[in-house]
Amino acid sequence: MAPSSTIVGKIKVQLKLSISRLRMVQQKDTAIAKQQRRAMAQLLEQGKEESARIRVENIIRSDITTELLEILELYCELLLARTGLLEAKECDPGLEEAIKSIIHAAPRTDVKELQQARQLLVEKYGKDFALEAIENTDGKVAERVLKKLKVEPPAPELVTLYLKEIARTYGVAWPKKEESPDEQNDEDDDNPSGGLAVKALEEPLSTAELSRATPPRDLGPRSPVSVAPPSPSTDNLSPRVRLPGPPELKPGAKMSGLKKQAPGTDAQSTSKDGDIGRVKKNVVGGKIPDVDELAKRFAALKK
């Protein structure tokens, strides 16, 4: 048999590993339970109540297992805090409940580190001690551990409470309120239209009210193209909508060369423009020039 101090050192190591492993398993189970609860809410919203009642039992079982792992984690922390009492050959009464609960419940879990810690505890305290813990002949195993280990279908009241809590958390209207026969008869008496609700007709507006009313802004044809203004950002605090328009034409080299003409040319063009303007004024004023006048003007223009 190995020395007591060596076994105690191994137990301490396995207890630390068991605590960290138990916490990881609890977090994983909690995340999975959240996804399952969301799925239950969708079933309730779709009206599949029977399917939700069957599937919610898995959530209840998962919650019970998570609570069991939490209890075992507390027992491991208790043994780790009182490792000095593990040095004794006989089991201390203050540790008996925790040790026997771990020996009794560890095989029902999937935590290998906890099962190895159980083997070390059995090796330290002997097979008779372990047999008492497994069969719980002396009743030292915690009652709450025994209750969590029971395999039985949940009560219908518990299933209903779970579904109500899930529906309240995810905003689902469940259970749907059923109308009593008296309320249905009252509605039938108030609405004698064969079960169809008839809306009350509103009084027509008077002519004065119609004249004061403002027409809606969206009355009339709409443009098929609508441009939404861009949202402001740190780069552009006051955005504006820029519609595509005709490009601005800049004069080329030829146009700029034509503008730079001699003064004589400008004078001739000015005189020609003046004569043409006189002709237009006469026409506009209602005086039609004779043929002789037109011939004289054209001769003057040719000079």
Which features would summarize this protein structure in a list?
303 residues; mainly alpha; 12 helices
Describe the structure in your own words.
The chain has 303 residues and is mainly α. The protein has helices spanning 4-45, 49-81, 93-105, 112-125, 127-135, 143-149, 156-169, 181-190, 207-212, 253-259, 263-285, 291-302. The N and C termini lie far apart (141 Å). The model is unreliable at 262-267 and 279-285 (pLDDT under 50).
SS elements, strand count: 0
Shape: elongated
| pLDDT < 50 stretches | 262-267, 279-285
**What percent of the residues sit in helical stretches (DSSP H or I)?**
55-70%
Percent of sequence in beta strands: under 5%
Biggest β-sheet description: none
End-to-end distance, in Å?
Answer: 141 Å
What string, H for helix and E for strand, traces the elements in order?
HHHHHHHHHHHH
Task: Write down the overall mean pLDDT.
Answer: 77
What class, by secondary structure content? mainly alpha
Helical stretch count? 12
Rg result = 48 Å
